[in-house]
Amino acid sequence: MALRIYNTLTREKETFEPVQPGRVNMYVCGPTVYDYPHIGHAKTYVSFDIVVRYLRYRGYDVMYVQNITDVGHLVGDADSGESKIEKRARERQVEPMALVETYTREFFKGMDALNCLRPDISPRATGHIPEMIELVQRLIDRGHAYVSEGNVYFDVESFREYGKLSRRRLDEQESSGRVEPGAGKRNAADFALWKTAEGTGHLMRWNSPWGIGFPGWHIECSAMSTRYLGALFDIHIGGEDHVPVHHSNEIAQHEACHGHPPARYWLHGAFLRLDSDVSRGGRPSCVAGKLLR
User: Fold this and answer.
1) What pLDDT sits at residue 277?
2) For residues 243 and 266, what is the distance between their CA atoms, to the nearest angstrom?
């Protein structure tokens, strides 16, 4: 019996056909390691673990890549403001990378306790800065990105299908508050590929053609997934909150470079939710999203 997968990109159930017969290359957006894993992580990664196990049960040779975000993810998923990791490191009065090491171990400790399979590769964002810089430069050279005051932004107007994963037009995103104006941006929806760290006190910083800075959150996954799975792989998975911003931006920057989205199938797990009865002393119940349908 053919395997049918609900694809967020097309909003349809589709017969699964891998790029290479018998093999599945799968990328999962991993945690930003600034605190202990919580019950939401448990629900999310158990769901993804089931996908991997089922594909292997069906006889596929699965390459499972799940990244570790250890730089670049700002508070509120924004383009400006504080880094989640640096903010927490300052609060705890520790070095950012010491914080990262602590909570990376805690994440895997928690996933092991849940009997989740370890990924085949767990790339860290900080270990792939050269690939990110190369990708950003390619977008600049192709007219899809521009430099402004040491920052590099993706020009959403240069990509006509921007937002096709969420199916929301730019004006709808602006009115919802999911995009933010910023000094030096041509369009409020333009998102950061590289952020300047000069004069900001940002401790995690690297040299680049545009000055000292650090990568934007979205470019990290594009660089790491391409590095290990190629320009076209089979399945990209993440939480439902990634649809309107993170994964939409991934698709835009990747397709601007390669002419197609990075993955054929996009799967998203729903949040773990608790009934409102909990606030009145009732028992909680989970509402879980469906991945393989």
Assistant:
1) 46
2) 9
Which residue has tokens 């470019």? Answer: 219
Contacts of 271 (CB under 8 A, 6+ apart): 40, 239, 240, 241, 289
Q: How far apart are CA 134 and CA 152, in angstroms?
A: 13
Q: What is the pLDDT of residues 244-285, one digit of tens each?
A: 999 999 999 999 999 999 999 999 998 887 765 444 455 444
CA-to-CA distance for 87 and 62, rounded, in angstroms? Answer: 36
233, burial (CB in 10 Å: exposed 0-12, middle 13-18, buried 19+): buried
Neighbours of 218 (CB within 10 A): 27
pLDDT of residue 74: 83
Report the distance separating Cα 191 and Cα 139, nearest Å: 13
- Sort strands 233-239 and 263-269 into parallel, antiparallel or unpaired: parallel
Q: d(Cα 187, Cα 179) in Å, to the nearest integer?
A: 10
Q: What is the mean pLDDT of residues 204-209?
A: 92
* Pairing mode of beta strands 61-66, 23-28: parallel
- In percent, the amount of the chain with pLDDT more than 70 equals 88
pLDDT value, residue 293: 34
- Global confidence as pTM: 0.89
Quote the Cα angle for 86-88-93, to 5°: 90
